[in-house]
Amino acid sequence: MLALALKNLTRRPVRSLLTLSGLASAVAFLVCLLAFSESYRSGLRRELDGMGMQLMLVPLGCPFDAAAQVLKGRALETSLPQSALTQARRDPAVALASPVFAAALPRPTLGRTDLWVGVDDTARQLRSWWRLAGGRWPEKPDDVLLGAEAAQTELREPGDRLYSPETGRTFTVCGVLTRSGTSDDSQFFVPLATAQAMFHQPERLTAVAVRLTDPAQLGAASKRLQEIPGAQVVTLTEMMGTFLNLMGAARALMLGVALVAVAIGALTVFNTLLASTLERTRELGVLRALGVSRGAVFGLVAQEALLLALLGTLAGFALATLLGPAIERLVRPFLPLSPTTPLPALTPTTVAQCLALMLGVGLLAGLFPAWRACRVPPAEALRQR
Q1: Transmembrane region positions (predicted)?
Q2: Contacts (Cβ under 8 Å, ≥6 apart) of 215
Q3: How far apart are CA 382 and CA 281, in angstroms?
């Protein structure tokens, strides 16, 4: 029966190919949506858990946007008073408070913008992923620590001189970090006081990253730190919940569009099989006259539906694999705190869900054509020419 079902589908190759292309497009869209959503959720949770901090102090304004910009390695238009760092370090629940001052430095002649980040010794304790590819850690005011991409762009190695024409300063490259896959790779790290002087922001900070002695004290510590003048507290748990809620709303909308696409794919299967059974009325009548049961005829058309759905789903998986990287490049810039790991990653769960859904849809689409085929009266069918 399977060989006969495949032969029937190849009788009208153009029609079958059009049906398969519609199914493949619907499956590819659904697969990308499910894989993208799951990868974003797990990647975001993994990256936030690995940052070694529980909360951040950011300037007044939109706290979640400010925290996302800092974590993605971007400068802010507003800043914190450095007194916020002192007060945070006095809190009994705070194990580590690491200051950050980040400023963007446009390089119009080179067509790019560099991000200079001022840090102190606590940055190494907070960023557990930092490893030196060569050189040493910053010690002097004119030292600069380069991320892997920044060193490659500037063609600099430890011990080289680096001149910044926009600020009129000359630095010594004290070290180069190994590639981490984070925004650190493209940044220029200098001592905190140096960065503040470079950009004429003495005693100002972009943010303060806080690690607690006990994460269970998060609620009480947040309330106390919230009272620091000019600062507001953002916990990473709140941040992740907010971002996932935003993603959830967008996901629901896209899921509705994906289901419409799947419904259209089901209609194409229905039309293809119905047209096929109408064209084969005489053939089906001959089968019935030869003693083939109604159940066998029903099963034959149902197999054709399942075969169409299976081939369309497999083609959809292949299409999603090809289009996934391009879709990721388009949407990643619009995601808050997008993980560095690939987003549209297929998992066995996603594959199983899509395969089960599409086989079910294909079978439902083929029920009426199969029922109509098995009800063809042999005598009436044989009279047709």
Answers
A1: 252-275, 296-323, 343-368
A2: 54
A3: 9
Pick from 46, 80, 35: nearest CA to 182: 46
Q: What is the mean pLDDT of each run of 10 residues along the chain (385 residues)?
A: 64 80 83 70 59 78 48 57 91 91 84 88 87 93 94 94 90 93 86 92 89 85 88 75 57 72 84 82 74 80 86 87 71 53 66 85 86 74 58
Instruction: Give the per-residue pLDDT at 67.
Output: 45
Residue boundaries of the structural domains of the chain: 2-46+244-383, 61-229
pTM metric for this prediction: 0.57
Q: Which two tokens stand for residue 86?
A: 């002192």
User: How many angstroms separate the Cα of 258 from the Cα of each of 163, 164, 194?
Assistant: 53, 50, 52
Are the CB atoms for 238 and 35 separated by under 8 Å? no
| Cα distances (angstroms) measured from residue 177 to each of 101, 130, 153, 188 | 19, 7, 14, 10
Residues in contact with 306: Cβ distance below 8 Å, sequence separation at least 6, in sequence order: 359, 362, 363, 366
Beta bridge partners of 59: 231
State how far the Cα of 315 lies from the Cα of 320, in Å rounded to an integer: 9
Question: Secondary structure of 63-108 in the HEC alphabet?
Answer: HHHHHHHHHCCCCCCCCEECHHHHHHHHCCCEEEEEEEEEEEEEEC
Average pLDDT over the chain reads 79
- Give me the helix-helix angle, 236-279 and 348-374, nearest 10°: 20
Which tokens in the block code for residue 366? Answer: 């083929």
- Residue 350, CB half-sphere, CA atoms under 13 Å: how many? 21
DSSP string, 207-220: EEEEEES-GGGHHH
DSSP per position, 319-384: HHHHHHHHHHHHHGGGSTT--SS-SS---HHHHHHHHHHHHHHHHHHHHHHHHHHHT--HHHHHH-
What's the start-to-end Cα distance of the chain, in Å?
A: 25
Q: Which residues contact 201 (CB under 8 A, 6 or more apart)?
A: 79, 101, 103
- Indicate the helix (H) or strand (E) that contains 194: helix 192-198
